[in-house]
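DM from R.C. (forwarded with permission)

"hey, sorry to bug you on a friday — could you get me a structure for this? deadline for the figure draft is monday and I only need the backbone to look sensible"
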Amino acid sequence: MSVEDKREDRAGAADERIVMYLHGGSGNHGCEAIVNSTCHMLSDIPKQLVTNSEEEDRAYSVAELCDILQERKIAEHFWAHLWYYVWRAVFRDPESFMRYRFRQVLGKHRAPVYLSVGGDLYCYEISRKEAVIANRTFCRAGAKTILWGCSLEPELLQDAEIVADMKRYALITPRESITLQALRDAGVTENVRCFPDPAFALRPETADLPQGFARGKTVGINISPMAIGCETVPGITLANYRKLIDYILQTSDNCVALIPHVVWKRNDDRLPLKELYRGYEANDRVFLFPDMSCQKLKYVISQCRVFIGARTHATIAAYSSCVPTLVIGYSVKSRGIARDLFGSEEHYVLPVQTLEDPEELQRAYDWLTAREQEIRAGLEATMPAYCAKACEAAAEVRKIWRQQCGEAAR
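My reply, with the result:
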């Protein structure tokens, strides 16, 4: 029996399982945080993670929480790619690529429920097409699909094809109210239940802190290539961050922690953070943190006084740790979450697209720190219930899973 056949047998070993799919790999620690917290929420149900990068997922925190299966990559197999390309062209069958990609969890290995864990896949054109075709593929196979912890730009739901796709899901759990309202406005209501992002319930894990790190007197900073790519004035994002770091060092005794949250080769936070760090290497109040698991990153962020971040799940780690947070946002995710937490995104989200002045971030930081105690007290009052509500989404998944397993038994 070939290695691939063994892997496919393992894939079908537990039919009554939930398959988590469209997971890009734990090198994006937001993706890791979603899977990690979801596995803990659904600890009583067998789970399988079909991943784009098994190597990444075994390197961090999810390996002990679920069965991990590397998805099949058609681009790496010339003859298979050629065959399916011809088939798709002749028979106009776009799902053929998905059937190849997920063959190990389809056919005789089909699961009753498939959970799409890529919360913002519909925000980007390439991944949006994948999400639509994957949903259709699993539904045609007779399974139930769930769109888990998602965000959707309201304009997207003006597309009839996307609306039809949303109605195929057995359950959609938008993570913020802007997406919820957009779904309602588009007539997608019966299968929708709104819950906070699963990562609000992520459990931190103690990590080593560098010598000189001042707990409660450190400003955590995260920046991403994706945010920089959304700027309208070239170089303005890094210029704002540099101005802010200089300002913190010159006007306070706070430390600065530069914290990466995604380390994919094609989208690596460490690159702009290293550029920011240049010139501060000898400063004992500035720390550049290495890569680590989502749980350890959450611990590091929880030790900060305030947090300035571009990655959604880095800011979720801060919010859920009751750390006053300013988001350098670029999409509906950051606006919706801030609006739900504070009643408005104003002052809590600084859209990177609007940056024109190198001192805008400094002014936003001043507004945040002037209200630091008030914001922290508000988070401390609301976070226990908010995080508990994130966990309540698991009950909706269990209903669908039990229904499907019951029907399969009959």
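R.C.: lifesaver. The chain has a mean pLDDT of 91.
me: no worries. The chain has two domains: 3-202+388-409, 218-370.
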